[in-house]
């Protein structure tokens, strides 16, 4: 049984050097449910050193891909055996309703690890090519030691989106959990330990902003994978830029759902409710702006508001609950502040708008619907990260596309129509990294990420794996026969153009 003051570093539980503790509070009661070490300089140094040593001197990066895949398969099996424990823990940590936590958080994360375990087994480390001047070998080498920094809203799923491709590529990882949700990460560490991952391949700790910044700037880290706010993403990009570190940043969003006139509104509004208010709106792809033509606007608002008033808000451990609490008092106050801003700016409150009666304990907010929202209002431009949905009218499809594209964000969006081809035509016009026709999903086999201020790079799919690999080109003399390529004659005098560049020409 490990002690409460331990962190997982170098393949074992070790006493934290930090004397600071993070109090983990239940968002449904506000009460402290656990304490974990708040990693300090010593813990960060130890974790990075372990990851660095495992990459530079350990077996993991050099293992044949199939052998890495076999160990990852055991890691997956260990996590599957702990899936119920993961689900219960996440519900306690961040208030995800028990009816939604398994399919929406745990199962999705397991499927990401499953996808990259399969990808690892077939990873082509070296590929011969017939170059223009001579044969070449292109190697895919792991980028190095990775800092994986995850938020509190969908913690296990987002962690898997980072550690799974990193492990498949042969990288080593320091997984930094959010201070609000560190407990599930310790379950991940226990599964890695039981699966026999070599020491230092996966290190796990929790830290606040100070520890996170130390991790980002540590010279032993080669790449940072971060999901969180755009403001923090900018800071990480700036710090990483000083050292030319690789980054993948999945940041904020203000996604628009475009409802076309041909759709059955009753069915569409019911499905839109889920992709707007899941996790009480605390997810980056939330469809928080609903765009409806002026002709059907009143009907759509009425139907959506009617659905939200019937949603069960309350104890996340109750199977009947659909909306649990927000993560913290600070987040609840921020969301309530946005609701007041919407009122002041002239939007009309149709449903919700406050703390649910009888739920003053804990950090709850009613599902809230605004109408008469204009595209320039703050509630239509800024990421609220709460159960607040803004209905905006549009005149025609061109107007809808302009409104959807009219924010600094470009992470996700949806279109709702009975004509799939028409939906695809709209989808092609939206500046977002991901888009859905009649629904929202993140497929492990397809890239996910943002345009504009919604981030840099992609996670998931083969593209997510490639972001943890560095291509290396090895040239060989003309006429060399490589496996899979015929001997090539090349040029007799040179294997390619040569240019002498002085220091001033670099």
UniProtKB/TrEMBL annotation:
State the taxonomy lineage.
Bacteria, Bacillati, Actinomycetota, Actinomycetes, Frankiales
Q: Is Metal-binding one of the keywords UniProt gives this record?
A: no
- Keywords, comma-separated and alphabetical: Oxidoreductase
Q: Does the keyword Iron apply?
A: no
The record's family statement is: Belongs to the aldehyde dehydrogenase family.
> EC number(s) of the enzyme?
1.2.1.3
Span of domain Aldehyde dehydrogenase? 13-474
The region called Disordered is annotated at 478-506
The transmembrane segments are: none
Catalytic positions are 250
List the InterPro entries: Ald_DH/histidinol_DH (IPR016161), Ald_DH_C (IPR016163), Ald_DH_CS_CYS (IPR016160), Ald_DH_CS_GLU (IPR029510), Ald_DH_N (IPR016162), Aldehyde_DH_dom (IPR015590)
* Top-level taxon of origin: Bacteria
A Pfam family this protein belongs to? Aldedh
Q: Which GO terms describe its molecular function?
A: aldehyde dehydrogenase (NAD+) activity
Q: Which Gene3D superfamilies match?
A: Aldehyde Dehydrogenase, Chain A, domain 1, Aldehyde Dehydrogenase, Chain A, domain 2
Q: What is this protein called?
A: aldehyde dehydrogenase (NAD(+))
* Catalyzed reaction equations: an aldehyde + NAD(+) + H2O = a carboxylate + NADH + 2 H(+)
Provide the top EC class: oxidoreductase
